[in-house]
Amino acid sequence: MRICVYCASSDGADPIYKETAFRLGATLAEAGATVVYGGGGKGLMAAVADGALSKGGEVIGIIPRFMIEVEWQHPGLANLEIVEDMRERKHRLLTGSDAVIALPGGSGTLEELFEAITLKRLALYFNPIILLNTKNFYAPLHRFMQQTVDERFMNREHVDMWSLVDDVDDVLPRIRATPRWHEDARSFAGVR
Ligand code: AMP
């Protein structure tokens, strides 16, 4: 399995975020999954990579050239793919992934997450999108997305495009339990 992980370039306010990110990386590696992420050497990104590497896992970092120029990359990665810009990075992160996991993060994480959700809505991505809900971080976002349904900017089915899990141990079981997204998703992409 190739798992695309989106997460923060910062540690966050509470050490639990970093601990969780490390544990996720380790758990994915122990399950034999390849972690594909943004290649950063700081924050939760570094923690996910370090967790996976600590268990001998395969980690692929995909990073734009301008970030290499300011040395933002993780120094311990054997697999670092250098791309020209953020758009190519997002494309390469998602393409070929068997699932997406979003950890807490800022604008970068949210942008990546929303691209994946939007592509799923348009039947351009079909795999699970899991939000790791450490400290209930994603609960307000989940509620807000429910509001987009209530206000008829999305359909009821669309809230099934992603799901929240509270603990690292729930991530792989949730990925396995999530059915492939509807082949005919375009037929209900617009609001009815
Ligand atoms: P955020 O969730 O806002 O921290 O954004 C994560 C995204 O921003 C990722 O795509 C990162 O590669 C990028 N990013 C922003 N600042 C940094 C940094 N200092 N080091 C590495 N990546 C960064």
From TrEMBL:
Its EC number is 3.2.2.n1. GO terms for molecular function: AMP nucleosidase activity. PANTHER family: LOG FAMILY PROTEIN YJL055W (PTHR31223:SF70). Pfam families: Lysine_decarbox. GO terms for cellular component: cytosol. This is Cytokinin riboside 5'-monophosphate phosphoribohydrolase. The keyword Nucleotidyltransferase does not apply. GO terms for biological process: cytokinin biosynthetic process. It comes from the Bacteria. Keywords: Cytokinin biosynthesis, Hydrolase. It is an enzyme of class 3 (hydrolase). Belongs to the LOG family. It comes from Tahibacter aquaticus. InterPro entries: LOG (IPR005269), LOG_fam (IPR031100).
